[in-house]
Design goal:
Blueprint (H helix, E strand, L loop, with lengths): L4 H4 E4 L4 E5 L10 E4 L2 H9 L6 H18 L3 H9 L6 H10 L5 H23 L6 E5 L5 H4 L5 H10 L3 E7 L6 H13 L3 E4 L4 H6 L5 E4 L3 E3 L4 E4 L2 H10 L4 E4 L5 E2 L29 E4 L6 E4 L2 E2 L1
Helix pairs in contact: 2-3, 2-4, 3-4, 3-5, 3-6, 6-8
The protein binds 5-S-methyl-1-O-phosphono-5-thio-D-ribulose.
The site of 5-S-methyl-1-O-phosphono-5-thio-D-ribulose has 19 residues, from α3, α7 and β9.
Amino acid sequence: MELRPDGIIRLDESVPAVVLLDQRRLPDAIVELECRTVPELAEAIRTLAVRGAPAIGVAAAYGLALAALRGDDRAEAEAVLAASRPTAVNLFWALAELRDDPTPERARALHDEEVERCRRMSAHAAELFEPATRALTHCNAGGLATGGYGSAVGALRAAWERDRLQHVLVDETRPLLQGARLTAWELEQIGIPHHVIADSAAASMMARGEVDLVVTGADRIAANGDAANKIGTYSLAVLARHHAIPFYVVAPTSTLDASTATGDAIVIEERDGAELTTRFPARNPAFDVTPRELITAIVTEDGIL
Ligand code: MRU
């Protein structure tokens, strides 16, 4: 089954509503969620019904178009969406892009452009794969996370189509299992051989020589090249360096944040500890920052940096 961009997220002007494939229910159920108001959409973003940096941006763009269709106060709609999640810069980028033209046409164009960026950067990233590459990825940076095609999973897909990919290890990505639930499901749809591993198994898989490269997406890339991504990405980058394995970040230019000098200034979302345990107090940072010196290359639609 091909995940079509409008099957992941779309604006239905007849309701009007932003309609999402509810990612909280995957892979067990394919269920759509209809958000008829901006607060409903912001709640869907906060609770990860739609997630992944570029997809959050696309959702926010449709959200501003929804607000305009409904005749809502635009500044208030923007403030509600901006407060949904703090780390992915694509959210704030998309809100700024739609500010002066919050029309369905502009929102759809932003969505199409984002998917096109994914296709282009994935083609560039595939050049980094040797024949029969065994890759490892973290979280979900697929079509679900980008509104279509994918960034890190897009790179895996492009490498697979070029006959350069043998196998993918998928970190389960605790605590919310974006890898085990979403990336594994997407790889299954595409037909790419894969195995889910516990996050803590990555080190020993590298030590056993079973990983040729690591590829991830990003939620925000600072001006100096430090990259925020799902919690656990930094430890993978440290492990990759120890084992002399290349570590690649694949992300569209909408994830670049020139106004943030270094990773230290990136706001890291702390989610409810109940996602980990309700028995004890818990800390639950959702993202971490990988310093630029641990990143072998950043790939955008403009090429390999
Ligand atoms: O909390 P999530 O699921 O929104 O986190 C998503 C990630 O960390 C992705 O790796 C990132 O957004 C890149 S998606 C192309």
